[in-house]
Design brief:
CATH superfamily: Vaccinia Virus protein VP39
Bound molecules: S-adenosylmethionine
Structural class: alpha/beta
CATH class: Alpha Beta
Number of domains: 1
Helix content: 25-40%
CATH topology: Rossmann fold
Radius of gyration: 16 Å
Shape: globular
Length: 199
């Protein structure tokens, strides 16, 4: 079956939301560095005075991102951690205006090293704690593979139970396409001094 994707992709929707939010001098987090495309894009958005913290558990991803940033003369805007994103609240020295997750596996690498539902949920909770008020979290979810379907189910449940006084939670997805196309979950932190809003 042919599908047109006239409404563009989950990654495009995430980028549009982040670009509306981030300003020069802001703090951003790439929770899934991969080949570094998103880290580079975030470095450009936060400018010379901003900072990007990026995470991946694969040394190859960190090396690839490092080389990409060096080639683009953006290396000084990023702090790269070869560590799981579930450790974000321990490793971030400052809170963030935007946090980006692009779940799944490293393009071109074996599918064995994919994000996993347990650590993804831990990291999503950590991300809420790391966001500044009015900050935004975007998660691109790929339910077309088994672990991705588990992540979708768990994250939709998680998002639906965040307190509405503390967070706006938003989902964008195609409803009629075959093969479980990617979807976007986005969370905006609303208030400064309340309980965390964790379920
Ligand atoms: C779809 S790729 C990300 C693509 C990337 N955003 C880019 O622009 O190239 C997902 C990445 O998540 C990484 N990953 C898996 N588990 C992780 C974890 N617990 N913490 C951080 N990264 C993880 C994988 O190693 C993989 O590189």
């Amino acid at each position: 079956m042919n599908v047109n994707n006239d409404f563009r992709s989950a990654r495009h929707w995430a980028h549009a939301l982040i670009e509306e939010t981030l300003e020069i001098g802001d703090i951003a987090v790439d929770a899934t560095m991969g080949n570094g495309h998103d880290t580079e894009w975030l470095c450009r958005l936060v400018g010379e005075t901003g900072r990007v913290y990026a995470f991946d558990i694969q040394p190859a991803a960190v090396a690839q991102t490092e080389a990409r940033l060096q080639g683009a003369q953006l290396r000084n805007r990023a702090i790269l951690h070869c560590a799981g994103h579930e450790r974000m609240n321990e490793l971030l020295p400052e809170s963030a205006n935007a946090i980006v997750f692009n779940l799944g596996w490293l393009p071109g690498a074996p599918h064995g090293v994919t994000t996993r539902v347990e650590t993804t949920l831990q990291a999503a909770n950590a991300a809420l704690q790391c966001l500044k008020p009015r900050g935004i979290l975007t998660i691109c979810i790929y339910p077309g593979h088994e672990e991705g379907a588990r992540e979708r189910d768990a994250l939709l449940h998680w998002g639906a139970h965040l307190r509405p006084e503390a967070f706006d939670v938003f989902v964008k997805q195609y409803l009629n396409q075959p093969h479980d196309p990617p979807l976007l979950l986005a969370v905006r932190k609303l208030m400064e001094k309340t309980s965390t809003g964790l379920p």
